[in-house]
Specification:
- The complex is a heterotetramer, with two copies of chain A (388 residues) and two copies of chain B (398 residues).
- By secondary structure, chain A is α+β, with helices and mostly antiparallel strands.
- Chain A has helices at residues 7-22, 27-33, 38-50, 68-80, 87-101, 104-115, 229-265, 277-305, 311-337, 348-359, 365-375, and strands at 121-124, 140-144, 147-158, 165-171, 181-187, 193-198, 207-218, 222-223, 267-268, 271-272.
- In chain B, 46% of the residues lie in helices and 14% in strands.
- Chains B, D: Its cofactor is FAD.
């Protein structure tokens, strides 16, 4: 029995923590909000130099060949400082997909790029209408002369301008079920594709609508089996959600620290407010949420790494608990801060907004309830079946 | 038991409704009105609306006729609030002047103060703000440190105020300052009617988490007030403050009716939004959540009516207002949070990209965080209810 | 605008309160638990003398001809003292059914009996299996020689031994839908019916299983239209649930008073515990629940009395809120009392148990959610349609 | 990260499991066992079980070999708890003796105390209870008033204890009494090893809300203890108390594993119960509730494992035990409440009429109300967590 990160993992966390602390924690996110992306770019370069981007990439492609548990410290620290950008999507969603389903050519190109920190990926999934269900995928992909022709619109694509490549969910055969959906890798610079930015309540992440008008892509840009992109994606989502849970734990830890610090120094009625049980016990509830989210997240990543039987329910529930608890405690943090917590100046609101961004990100809350229920054998519906 | 409005009250409603239809800003009711986001232009817009209300006789309905009011009953004030909420009328820039300062002056102001200020409050010529909270005096208002030192017939005022609504637009401030350093806590505080348009007064905007600017910091550096600008007695300002709060006899009516309106709009949203071709309302999980919200929204409205009944019978509001405030502000926050969840990932789309007009849900959601803080935090309301209504012993801190 | 009980109603409350206070409040319930029913019987007689049993009965049959709002004070006071017996069922369920659907003969007999306080009714609805749905009604009623022959089993019949008459839900035609169900009035003393008591967690109410073996009943004992007992019953349930909400408000009020009193006198750490915000704010939450339950209950009864358009949703939601809040605050009351609250000696647990008794009494929580949703026009299903 | 048990630990489990299968009371595992409800007979049943454990070498596994233990590791203690919960083994009547008194005596008892008490604790010959709480000293244990006054080599003890588990069966009591009235609070308290079988000691049953009798009031009227029955120093009993609590190194393991078991049984119940021919688990509202409970049950088990890892590494338990206690007791109460709701109106059927065997849900539900109170209320746990783990300022009352 040893339920803890190992010494190397904690040591690596120390490096990343120090690096992000030196960069001023949420300072990068705040500059990003103002439209200044330089400090983010240099920070990401520095993180790549630390090795963050290569942790879970095979040694063949310049990586360290490590697993989900080794990713946790980096993920937590990015959550702690509300780092903008696509580290989570690139390393926790796309890397596992490429590792398992990529052609040798795709791996050579993309995994090496990611490993050395020069390129990142985003995911073009949602369309106007906003449904993550298979029926929501209507972007038309036609095959012509050994090329794919894409027509349609993708919405809420995260950090579309920062990404170098997108994984696009397109419909390669007719219908509205999960059959006939394929994953296609597209460069941001593809011709006939336009990007229109969309305003996100979480300004540390940008969103955009991508419009595809006869965008032509070589056939070999398909990731995984043709028409079976939905099942392929599910594999990546397991990894993504385990990782997302860890990112949220990092954010939650910072939120609890903020609340504790403020409750110690802020005085009202001649007392530090942390002495009042209304404040003290609320912060304790936040702490309980944090530690439970952490246990669930660590276990989810362990289950993923060990290919444990209960990994699907472990990951779904870790995600569900983390997203819910993050919204709850980041909101409570504003209440504890009182008026000052309601201002733009203090970071409280940035955490609330990030929490809302994650709530239904890459799958609705209800979808993950169903996924967990199916995995536990509590459901007859196959809406959430995982093809692994 | 009777939930009806009298014929007179309904006539009042009809008169107001007719006036609003004719006088609301162009395109207001059909949602095509464009209000400038430029701060200066928005200020002019608000002042124009205040002026229009005055001209229509709708600026200060509860005031005595001799001051230009129409001596509206409490129930007419309720009708007024319902109608204003119904049309989502523009904010009342001189709220503090009309609902707090002027009634207080009518009650305890000098004749000079009455003649100098009241008429200009009514016309909107002079906009007022409230100078209460300070950085170290939020929940504990008695801890204010802004000082006023006597110098002949003048007082030299130094300190900092915060959370001053419309402070950047205000001409005058109903200001609390400490005039006696030796008296502790509630004693030794004096109320001044401070001229905001003087070199010693500087306002700086507070930008809220929703990106808006309603509140200000006010810095007082050797600001000047005169003896004639003191309300009540020197060092006895706490009583004036309490008297002033008593004039808000409709309590949080506006927020109750707004909550009701938001609930109804949430029902529409839940019927309009679809997942796999089914309205969200067909989803049993959503429906249960909506019934819960319906029940508590109704509950808070009915609680409010029950307390209103008491106010009507007793002639003045009681401590139950704290219960209304607590429930409505917490429920508003919860309902608006739910409105974001229901929109799925599209719920994060903001401002012009939000899926419903004017970023209605997103902006109201973010704003709602202030509602459980401003006007006394939920924690303070619970202390008040526990101590004043239930008779539990006071916190040790006080 | 006047949202309050009128002076007469509050004055009548005063009489009932005094009467029950003099009887030692929950003393009667505690004696009932021990199997002593004498004090209950004499209390009920006294209440009848006060007029409690005749309030909502037409003047023709010896009643006062008043409405649901006039019943509120009595209902609240019975809840306050956890009165055993069938006042609620008799006066708030059976009386309105008899008034609206009873034959002249039935009214003459039963309403007069109820009015003068000599007889009470119970309801035999559930069967083994425990479903309140129409499909749960399987007791077979055959017509023979202008008589009805009943065969089957009824379960969880409240206070079967105290009741003089039962309203039995029986199936007068085949099928398992709501069509073909009839309401039949049966005397406790009917031959070929056996009563087997069942242990109730709320010992202030007794339960029993009734077994019908060729029980023969005259045709004229059917209440309301033959085969349409289900719709008939719904009418009575509206009245019942509005009344139940008021009973619960009375119980909740007492629970809040207990918590407040104890928090004022119990000292720990040199302070009355009511000074600690953990205790103080929890009691405030209880008080908020109480007042909201009260507002909803009063309005529900007003809506019933005024036949208001929103009466169905008002009554369903009043019931839902009251049952839920009662369980919540009576549980919290134990926590506030600490160890002593966990003992049999203090009344705390009696309120928790009564709350659990009401939770799914005469319809499940989910049923009332659906009923409210249907009434609000939020549902396409007719599972909860009310035929009024 | 490693959630496995070692081969040695699994061998230990196998040995215990085999022993249990052979030695549990007749019919225990298949549910046909009939335990008498007669209090005297039940006491004999519990003492017999304690004796059987002793004879099998399973009464005090963590004790040193020289005292008759098997020097079990912490992980073996965990396995022991898991297995005992799995078979719902009978209660350990001498829990206080084995897990608290004896280890404390081994650490700081005199040689005479060790030889006089420890062996009899192991065999179950002498059952112990704990004399801590008093009517006015519940959450605030330092407020105890029971007094011990010196009289030669004797102490005359007067006062009242409450919440004494198995006090009616106990032969001896680990008793806190005040020996110095002038020292306030934690000082001036002394620990006595009181003989319960004497005229000055009277126990009265406390009947719980579930109708059971686990606890007692203990009245001390000129009860006698001797100098030789003092543990540690006179007036320094508080330290002994703390030392004693430190011996519960598995924390609330038993409750965690019980919660896990109850959750699994609730899943079965939800699949078995039907409404309109559909299992309740097919109802989306129920399923969502069950996923929530699953998540938090797993969360509390994993939190426990994480804290256990810390204990294994540090060699002693930390304040995190308060977090385990708080979460598990609150969640247990919630889960059991839900179990009643799920049964619909049949959930009120009790004892022999309950729809599941042995009134399992109803009795556990009622009992669960004590779990958030006994062993430190949830409010006290929150203070501990806030102050000892988060470093927030102490309550003013202390």
């Amino acid at each position: 029995m040893d339920f803890s990160l190992n010494q190397e993992q904690e040591m690596f966390r120390g490096y990343v923590r120090k690096y992000l602390d030196d960069a001023g924690q949420t300072k990068t996110a705040r500059e990003f909000i103002k439209g200044e992306t330089e400090s983010l770019q240099s920070l990401l370069t520095g993180m790549a130099e630390l090795g963050c981007t290569s942790i879970n990439i095979s040694e063949n492609y310049g990586g360290m060949g490590l697993g989900p548990l080794d990713l946790i410290p980096v993920l937590e620290e990015t959550g702690r400082s509300l780092l903008p950008g696509l580290y989570l999507e690139t390393n926790a969603l796309v890397v596992p997909l490429l590792e398992k389903f990529g052609t040798e050519e795709q791996k050579e190109r993309y995994l090496s790029e990611i490993s050395n920190g020069t390129k990142s990926f985003s995911l073009a999934w949602l369309e106007p209408g906003g449904s993550y269900n298979p029926s929501g995928i209507n972007l038309v992909v036609k095959e012509e002369n050994n090329h794919l022709i894409l027509n349609g619109v993708k919405s809420l694509v995260p950090d579309a301008e920062l990404a170098d490549h997108y994984i696009v969910l397109g419909r390669t055969s007719t219908g509205n079920s999960k059959e006939g959906i394929s994953l296609i890798i597209i460069d941001r610079t593809a011709t006939n594709m336009s990007i229109q930015s969309q305003k996100n309540i979480d300004e540390t992440r940008r969103l955009a609508e991508l419009t595809f008008t006869n965008v032509e892509i070589p056939m070999n840009q398909i990731l995984g089996p043709l028409h079976h992109g939905w099942e392929t994606l599910q594999e990546g989502l397991l990894s993504f959600n385990a990782a997302l849970s860890a990112v949220i734990v990092g954010s939650m830890e910072k939120v609890v620290e903020m609340a504790v610090e403020y409750a110690k120094i802020r005085e009202q009625f001649g007392q530090p407010i942390g002495r009042f049980q209304a404040i003290k016990h609320r912060i304790v509830d936040m702490k309980m949420d944090l530690e439970t989210a952490r246990s669930l997240a660590y276990y989810a990543n362990w289950a993923l790494e060990s290919n444990a039987e209960d990994r699907v329910q472990a990951i779904s529930c870790a995600r569900l608990f983390a997203t819910d608890a993050f919204t709850r405690i980041s909101s409570d943090n504003i209440q504890i801060h009182g008026g000052i917590g309601f201002t733009e100046e203090i970071d409280c609101h940035l955490f609330v907004k990030r929490a809302r961004f994650y709530e239904n990100y890459l799958g609705s809350t209800e979808h993950y309830y169903n996924q967990a229920a199916t995995a536990l054998g509590w459901s007859n519906k196959d809406e959430a079946i995982i093809s692994v | 038991m009777d939930f009806s409005f009298t014929t007179k009250e309904e006539e009042f409603r009809h008169e107001l409704r007719t006036w609003l239809e004719e006088n609301l800003p162009e395109g207001w009711l059909d949602g095509t009105s464009k209000v400038s986001k430029n701060e200066g232009e928005y200020a002019i817009f608000l002042r124009n609306w205040q002026r229009k209300l005055y001209e229509g006789g709708w600026a200060a309905i509860a005031w005595p006729e001799k001051y230009g009011g129409r001596e509206a009953t409490l129930m007419e004030e309720i009708v007024y609030q319902q109608e204003m909420v119904r049309v989502k009328a523009p904010a009342l820039v001189n709220y503090v002047g009309i609902h707090m300062v002027a009634p207080t002056l009518m009650q305890i102001g000098t004749e000079e103060q009455k003649s100098k200020y009241i008429q200009k409050i009514l016309t909107g010529e002079e906009v007022w703000c409230q100078g209460y909270s300070e950085p170290n005096a939020g929940s504990d208002l008695s801890a204010i440190q802004t000082s006023a030192v006597k110098d002949g017939d003048r007082w030299i005022i130094n300190g900092q105020k915060v959370w001053t609504s419309f402070g950047h637009l205000a001409d005058r401030c109903f200001l609390l300052a400490r005039t006696n350093r030796f008296d502790k806590k509630h004693k030794g505080i004096t109320v001044f009617l401070l001229d905001m348009n003087q070199p010693g007064v500087e306002t700086r905007p507070i930008i809220q988490m929703d990106g808006q600017h309603d509140f200000n910091e006010v810095y007082l550096n050797d600001a000047i007030a005169y003896d004639a600008e003191i309300v009540g007695e020197v060092d006895e300002g706490w009583k004036v403050t309490i008297a002033l709060l008593m004039h808000e006899r409709t309590g949080i009516g506006g927020q109750v009716f707004t909550l009701e309106q938001q609930f109804n709009e949430l029902v529409s949203l839940t019927k309009e939004l679809k997942e796999d071709d089914q309205p969200l309302m067909a989803n049993p999980l959503v429906r249960k959540e909506m019934i819960d919200l319906y029940t508590r929204t109704r509950g808070s409205l009915l609680n409010y009516y029950r307390n209103l009944t008491k106010t009507l019978k007793n002639g003045h509001p009681g401590a139950e207002g704290s219960m209304d405030k607590l429930m409505v502000s917490e429920l508003t926050k919860e309902l608006l949070s739910q409105s974001i969840s229901l929109q799925g990932h599209q719920g994060v789309l903001w401002k012009e990209d939000a899926i419903t007009a004017n970023s209605y849900w997103q902006d109201n959601y973010l704003y709602s965080f202030g509602q459980t803080i401003g006007g006394g935090t939920s924690e303070i309301q619970k202390n008040t209810i526990g101590e004043r209504i239930l008779g539990l012993p006071k916190d040790m801190g006080r």
